[in-house]
Amino acid sequence: MKRRACMTNPYRILIIEDDPDDVELILLGFQKHDEFFVDVATTGVEGLDEVSKRRYDLVSVDFALPGISGLDVLEEIRKTDQDVPVVMVTGRGTEELQVVAFEKYATSYVMKSVDSFRSLPHIFEALISESRFRSEERRMKRDIERSETVSRYILENSPMGVYVLQNGCFKMVNSKFIEIFGCEKEDLIGEHFWSLADPESFECVEGVAKDDAPGRSIVHELRITRKDGNKRWVEARIVPLDYQDERWVLGNLVDITDRKEGEKYLQMDNRRILVLYSLALKAIDFRGELDDLLKEALSELMAGPDGFEVGGVFLLEEGRLVLHALAGPLEDLMSFADQVDAEELLEEAEAKRVVEGDRPIFWVSAPFCNGEERIGLLVLGQEEDIEPDFLKFLKDLAWHVGKMVEIFELAKIHLEKA
After folding, report:
1. Can you tell me the distance from the alpha carbon of 371 to that of 376, in angstroms, rounded to the nearest whole number?
2. What is the pLDDT of residues 210-224, one digit of tens each?
3. Residue pair 19/50 in contact by the 8 Å Cβ criterion
4. Which residues contact 145 (CB under 8 A, 6 or more apart)?
5. What percent of the chain clears pLDDT 70, i.e. is strictly above it?
6. What residue numbers bound the domain in which 321 lies?
7. Which one of 98, 120, 142 terminates a domain?
8. N or C: which terminus of the chain carries fewer CB neighbours within 10 A?
9. Please, are residues 171 and 155 in contact by the beta-carbon 8 Å criterion?
């Protein structure tokens, strides 16, 4: 049984469930989510056969299945695939069952209910996003490791930043070394190492002594200042050698600026994904009022990786934006609100620079929706300039805030009816 999504690259999920009523409720929850391609299997054997034939982004397994149990299905899946998210679904959950499920490497555990079935698309999307991020992270790590292996081979067999010091003075440098530092070779031979640059321009981040014995290399990552003032990251491998009562140093340098920048952005993307995941989880089972949920969500965003100092969540009420959550100085947020056009902000995400006295603040804002209707505005500000890619991330944040409000209101309506 399948429902085909209209998007080019949907999430492909498998529901293993023998109860037709539960299947109907689950599929009902996915009707408004075109990003999912859903297959349904009614037995564990049928489910394992489907898993063996195609790659799924997530598998949902009922605990109580005819024939082989849900735990057996989970165990079989994990024999061949350690990465695919597997959600254990049960109508009679106990702490013991949860422990057993997680011991067999279930990704998550869901109790059967109307509310949980409604929330499945959002739960599944969060789990799939996290799984894809981890997969991409591993791929990038493999690529980096492979790149480093290739780089080591090239460095051993091709020209690189190599220098030799005798009693602290340059005896030899090669063209790559000159290129890295942006200086002339004839200006260095016979000169002391520190004639190249002031020692304060070398910012040592990491040093590893491979061995205390003579002839063993020491590795440093350094942030250097070239002669033209440009700053670069280099990895330096230094081998001190004592020969005929003189101290010699053999060193080589590799420019690692791109790698260091890549590591910085990878870490930031990782932390941003965790923020989005946390917002999704907050919406599922929050017991307070909407303002409390918005305050917690804003607090989560302010503690995220981008260092914002002030923020607010506004809701649209009778055509006016009303502040429902605040973090940081209220006067800064009000100053921003006084200098911008609210209707314009509700059109699309944008960045602005607002000067308060002698103090500029960089702001980003994005509207969020409940379904197709715009219902509010997310605003964040800081004194430092904002990363160029943050506006796209803010749109994702606003989308999650809107979904969070939507789920909260649906849950509240259900509780009131109950």
Report:
1. 12
2. 444 455 667 777 777
3. no
4. none
5. 84
6. 280-417
7. 120
8. C
9. no
